[in-house]
Amino acid sequence: MVKFQWISSTLNSFAQIGFQQNRFIGLLFMLAIVAGAPILLLSSLITVQIANLTASLLQVDKTLLNSGIYGYNAALLGIALAIWLPLSPITIMVLIIGAVMTVIIMALWLKLFCFKPYSSPFIVSSWLVIAALSAIDYPFNAFSVTSSGWSLPEAVLNGIAQVAFQQNELSGVIILIALVISRWQCTGWILWAAVSSSLFADILVTDAALIQQGFFCFNAILAILVLLSNPSFKKRWWLLFLSPFACVLLSQAFLGMNIIAFTAPFVLLVYSLLIIDFLKEKQPSG
Amino acid sequence: MVKFQWISSTLNSFAQIGFQQNRFIGLLFMLAIVAGAPILLLSSLITVQIANLTASLLQVDKTLLNSGIYGYNAALLGIALAIWLPLSPITIMVLIIGAVMTVIIMALWLKLFCFKPYSSPFIVSSWLVIAALSAIDYPFNAFSVTSSGWSLPEAVLNGIAQVAFQQNELSGVIILIALVISRWQCTGWILWAAVSSSLFADILVTDAALIQQGFFCFNAILAILVLLSNPSFKKRWWLLFLSPFACVLLSQAFLGMNIIAFTAPFVLLVYSLLIIDFLKEKQPSG
Amino acid sequence: MVKFQWISSTLNSFAQIGFQQNRFIGLLFMLAIVAGAPILLLSSLITVQIANLTASLLQVDKTLLNSGIYGYNAALLGIALAIWLPLSPITIMVLIIGAVMTVIIMALWLKLFCFKPYSSPFIVSSWLVIAALSAIDYPFNAFSVTSSGWSLPEAVLNGIAQVAFQQNELSGVIILIALVISRWQCTGWILWAAVSSSLFADILVTDAALIQQGFFCFNAILAILVLLSNPSFKKRWWLLFLSPFACVLLSQAFLGMNIIAFTAPFVLLVYSLLIIDFLKEKQPSG
To answer: Membrane-crossing residues (chains A, B, C) (predicted)?
Structure first.
């Protein structure tokens, strides 16, 4: 009999940030977040508990709940909003509302659509929250980043850390270890994504600080992870090869439009590829 | 044989503002509007006639037409826009276009969806009209409201009057009589909605003038009326008990974002509850 | 066996601007564009090639591809954006992205919907591109138009030329010839659309320069062409008679809201009529 096991669902919720389902991997992700900023582990633990509790009240499928499917969007939201918003009662209220929203979007998505949401529930919830807070002139945290240069190893490690919205080489090492343990066959592609996106960003963009932070890197890594877990995309090596460049272009486009991209570039890229495949299916009149 | 009877459909259109279908109740609602502002009865009579005429040209079901289903959104729009817009040829044109829009949205909704629209056609049409008029810098009526305090009986009566967008104790008494005649079993819950929303708004908000006007009250009353007419929600007393608090929070959220909420808080609340119930239905894999 | 013939598909793509499918008519449309501004033929030839190539890579139905269905939106986009955007590497990149977007939207539309897209893929792509460029403060070309008066023959010819976004009497003559050759039974209605829209705009609007340019005219012509090709609308002469007035009102509405309308007024009018017809279909309960 399947019961709602909250420790298991919490750990898996963190593992699902990297689209893995394994409690030990989840622990490593939590470790990576603590290494970056302990307060962010606290905020994401709170949103994950609220999300899993909400999902439980909605009487969703217990197996899915335990696998972390209902929690990882809230985890991302808990980290991302705690980075951008100052600590205040409104921020805490917003985290709670946002966490509940991710669950409702996820539950509706699983009922209505036959393709995976990836981190769409997180992106939609975060954008709605940020739009609402902008409308009432709520203050956002400001980040002043300047850098005279960047080094590839640091950019790559920061970029891997950014998968969990961290910016810290130790976090990068821990998440890299987690991904290698979980998907050792993909190690080459993960490194390719991290290296090629950083180098391509350097050609395209002049802002060394952003490259150093891994800003252009984490969407490429997430895209590779998702593409490699899709049997149809996995076979097309040229798609895997080119995906980091597309992610950098999309990240740069969001930057140019002054929109906080979060993981939207990778989600957009994967959906574009899925739409193109859907259109290429043999047509009745073709 | 069912014929298009314009007096009957007009009266029912006004009764449907409170989600009732009874010509005498419709007359009481019209009386409540006259007691508040005679000009608003004129504008809403015009929009209702245009709406029912449009619906008739679209050859909709005569029974629905006579029951006021195609007219109440136009009645709300006729009142709400006449409050916010100065009297001018453009305003009159906008009322006509808006009334036609409510009918087209309603007719499409009834064809495509299996759940009730409540006042969504009115909300969507009004927001589109207001967005378009804002884009051309059309002047809106300004309301300066200041108040050093509020009293519960006045806030409750104004709040009941606000169901038809009036702000006047006599209108409140007339609409209360109409609702009691039509749904005498619900009287307790209606009063609970009015009283609890006013008191909760006082704890949450510092603006006494808005509470006195019944601004936080009418969505709670509409929500109670709709929830009580749904067999599944009616059984859950704690839902009825809590709904006024949710309406106040949603009204405050719209206020904070500087959006004219109209009846959107109550519609959002009811749809959220319907979505949650839809998600809680036994899942195939559960 | 049907093969992808690029000359044929290119010519048909231009003919489809006027919703015709005939290679000679396509040649006349290209001639009309050269007569107006040779650079615009170049830009639209590029976008059409990109669009048809993209469609070909998506392995769409060859017959549709050859008939120009996948190319005319890109042709319109190539002309319209080259008019509004300064020549620069970013503009060229935007033309390429826009052309690919029109094909993806068109392919999705044909898979998902059972009604024609007309020029919706072009309108949606152009608005998205313009919104994105506005967000990054990209400069748009400015047009200063002043005129002390307007003459009907020039307004009519310019208006016909505007079907391909030209503003030039010779282009107007060529497109008129093309339309007369292709649809000689419609000549009377085409002229009615051009003349009545210009005269009605003169009553409604004070800006003689816009009328002289044919700004209020081309949507009326496109609407007549589409309505005449629909067996159900063709029978209703009063609909054909009134459609130019509706197009002028819609064009003026977009102007008032400061939105570049492109062909949106005609598309909105046709969809409104289709929705009304859909709603008027015998209802199960009626």
So the answer is: 25-51, 63-84, 90-110, 211-230, 237-254, 260-279
Contact of B278 with chain A, judged by CB distance below 8 Å, is answered with: yes
Instruction: Judge whether residue A282 has pLDDT over 70.
Output: no
Kindly state the average pLDDT of the residues B196-225: 92
Give domain limits for chain C: 6-135, 152-278
pLDDT of residue C189: 95
Based on the number of CB atoms within 10 Å of its own CB, is B127 exposed (0-12), middle (13-18) or buried (19 or more)? middle
How high is the pLDDT of residue A149?
A: 84
Chain Cα centroid distance, residue C262: 7
- State the pLDDT at residue C286: 40
CATH topology of C6-135 equal to that of C152-278? yes
The CATH number of A6-135 is 1.10.3430.10
- Is C135–A257 a contact, with Cβ atoms under 8 angstroms apart? yes
Most C CBs within 10 A among B59, B64, B94, B103, hence the mutation to make, goes to B59
Report chain C's C-alpha Rg in angstroms: 18
Is A278 an interface residue toward C (CB < 8 Å)?
Answer: yes
Short-list B200, B101, B86, CA closest to B140: B86
Confidence band, pLDDT 50/70/90 cuts, at residue A146 = confident
C63 to A285: CB separation less than 8 angstroms, yes or no:
yes
From A242's Cα to the closest Cα of chain B, the distance in A is: 38
Task: Look at the domain A152-279 and name its fold.
Answer: Ammonium transporter fold (1.10.3430)
The conformational region for residue C37 under phi > 0 = left, psi -120 to 50 = alpha, else beta, is beta
Looking at the predicted structure, is the pLDDT value of residue A102 above 90?
A: yes
Give per-residue pLDDT as tens, B218-235. 999 999 999 999 998 999
CB contact under 8 A, A135 and B286: no
pLDDT in tens, B257-266: 888 999 999 9
Q: Which residue of B has its CA nearest to C272?
A: B104
- Those residues with Cβ within 8 angstroms of residue B241's Cβ, 6 or more apart along the chain or in another chain: B192
* C278/B60 Cβ within 8 A: no
Question: Quick one: average pLDDT of A271-283?
Answer: 82
Render pLDDT for A12-42 as a digit per residue (tens, 0 to 9).
999 999 999 999 999 999 999 999 999 999 9
**What residues of chain C lie within 8 A of the CB of A253, using their CB?**
132
Question: How far B276 CA lies from chain A's nearest CA (Å)?
Answer: 7
pLDDT of residue A283: 53
CA C61 to chain A, closest CA, distance in angstroms equals 5
- Test B280 with A111 for CB contact under 8 angstroms: no
Neighbours of chain B (3+ CB pairs under 8 A): A, C
A280 touches chain C (CB under 8 A): yes
* Two structure tokens written together for A60: 């969703």
Q: Between residues 33 and 92 of chain B, which touch chain C (CB distance below 8 Å)?
A: 58-64
Q: Is the domain covering C152-278 a CATH 1.10.3430.10 domain?
A: yes
**pLDDT per residue as tens digits for the range B70-110:** 999 999 999 999 999 999 999 999 999 999 999 999 999 99
Site from C3, C90, C136, C137 to mutate, A interface, most A CB atoms within 10 angstroms: C136
For domain B152-277, give the fold.
Answer: Ammonium transporter fold (1.10.3430)
Rounded to a whole number, what is the distance in Å from the CA of A274 to chain C's nearest CA?
12
Residues whose CB is less than 8 angstroms from the CB of residue B92 and which lie 6 or more positions away in sequence, other chains included: none
Burial of B93 from C-beta contacts in 10 A (0-12 / 13-18 / 19+): exposed
What residues of chain C lie within 8 A of the CB of B63, using their CB? Answer: 285
Complex confidence, ipTM:
0.75
- Examine the pLDDT at C41 and tell me if it is beyond 80: yes
DSSP letter for each residue of A56-108? HHTT--HHHHHTTTTTHHHHHHHHHHHHHS-SSHHHHHHHHHHHHHHHHHHHH
